[in-house]
Request: fold
Amino acid sequence: MAAMTLTEKILARHAGKASVRPGDNIWIDVDILMTHDVCGPGTIGVFKQHFGADAKVWDRDKVVIIPDHYIFTADAMANRNVDILRAFAKEQALPHFYDVGTERYKGVCHIALPEEGHTRPGEVLLGTDSHTCTAGAFGEFATGIGNTDAGFVLGTGKLWVKVPPTMRFVFHGELPPYLMAKDLILAVIGDIGCDGATYRAMEFDGDAVYALNIEERMTLCNMVIEAGGKNGVIAPDQLTLDYVNTRNRSGKPYQVERSDADARWIFEKVYDVSKLQPVVAKPHSPDNRAYVSEVKGTKLDRAYLGSCTGGKLTDFRAAARLLYGRSVKIDTFVVPATSEIAKGLKTEKINGKTLEEVFLAAGAKIGEPSCAACLGGPSDTFGRLNAPMSCISTTNRNFPGRMGHKQAEVYLASPLTVAASALTGNITDPRDAMQ
Ligand code: SF4
Reply:
């Protein structure tokens, strides 16, 4: 049998085939379909239109609905979207609906999925959100799809896909304490560009990747879509399996896949992480890369720590290390991705102080778990850029208007760089704040 990559093996198995090659068009069986408050109503509309007003989803246990985007707002249209999800979950008796205003409410879907045990190695996870690729960190095929495809999946549990070729990115060496996964992925996107991986799988490998914790591996996979990637993936190791087995409450079995040693890569690049530097993506594109040293001193109005790529406990631990015992010079917003992470802010400690205490003492504001200002949202959204201002952010996109005002300028950076910059009010190298 021809050698295959991890992505090819997962797709072949889900198509009932012994092997597939890049470019093959195949029907695959879906393990999990996730939707949220922005795309859920449209997906439900497509499903009802094509399968009938009384149709039932193909498998209740495989549908996960996580309202997360426009939650803490008075906006009537945003609230109506959640009402539509609520009515659908009730009508279909869906067991995996994480409703707003209940004990089950989670926050950002891409972090909620693994926390709630919906990510398993070797599976196919589709979601109506481009950052669904985050779950590739668990060794599965995870990708974003549109409402039309998602409506079809709701009715059939299947999707027609083209097998992507795989690009391989190998990270070796010891990661310096001033770098994080965000620096690595911004370096990659800067190297290959916003279309450098269009409809390709991006597999990450190397000792520096396996030295990262699960949350940092999620950050790597989260941003493959910013290079056009179809999916990002990291083969599971014991750390992955321990995380998954702790969370996989249903006990659903899974099959770990790995790339064959002689698998064919369409591209390969090797990095020595010890030689990399802190990176930002300047306005208005994630591939508009600059070293922090090149833009050091750029004046800022705001700092933002949050989102699926930068609102995890690892991100907050890193930021709190720099903010401990100091005061921010600009408005600084902290948004935990999920309710579990929000609890962690109250329990995780540095030198006897909780992360929450460190942030509040430094003068930062802490919001409710959700996407918040990452996608702008209604004007009353926490942290939204409602004026033409300059912001440094741990989020993943900086297109015009992404975080609110169309003339706002957003710099993407690691939590360390964002925290260091919050302390000075201008773009600052984390190494300077560590002295
Ligand atoms: S946090 Fe931002 S990037 Fe992540 S799902 Fe929400 S809006 Fe999208």
